[in-house]
Amino acid sequence: MADKNARKSQRRSGRDAGGALAIRTGGGLASIFDDFMRPFEEFMEPLFPPSMRSIVSDLNRREPNFDIQDRGDKFVVTAELPGFGKDDVEVRVNPNSLELTAEKKTDEERKEADGSQSRKSYSYFHRYVTLPEAVMTEKVEGTMKNGVLELKLPKNEGRKLEEKARRVDLK
Fold first, then answer.
1. Structural domains in the chain, sorted by start
2. How many CB atoms sit inside 10 A of residue 42's CB?
């Protein structure tokens, strides 16, 4: 307990155990934010057992950038999906909505003379968007290049709308 209090005191004073001023390198804005959040994290740490921490950290996941632009005669949707290829992404479009799902599973196993190593990862993204105006589903085009998905959704020109969802093939 005394050791923990000594560490807290050192952090607050900015001095190391020998009394010398501790100098931090690097950092920038992220470091300042970390310094600001540290007392709160230390206060909350005893309240959450280790099994709960993983659940809380999952809530802090980053969502990919997703943008919809109205360009007059069409909507242009851009989604940054790093690590996903066009085969990992499924786009479904209705006249008034867009559904985007990206899923990637990897399972690597490497065997060496001194043993084996296994790695598994799973990434998933899902977004459902209601469009502000009806689009012509049969004319929707999509491309996936370097982890960036771009969809062009032409607006309806007064034609009868096809109500059925359509899967968009990505180029």
1. 2-59 (no CATH), 66-168 (2.60.40.790)
2. 13
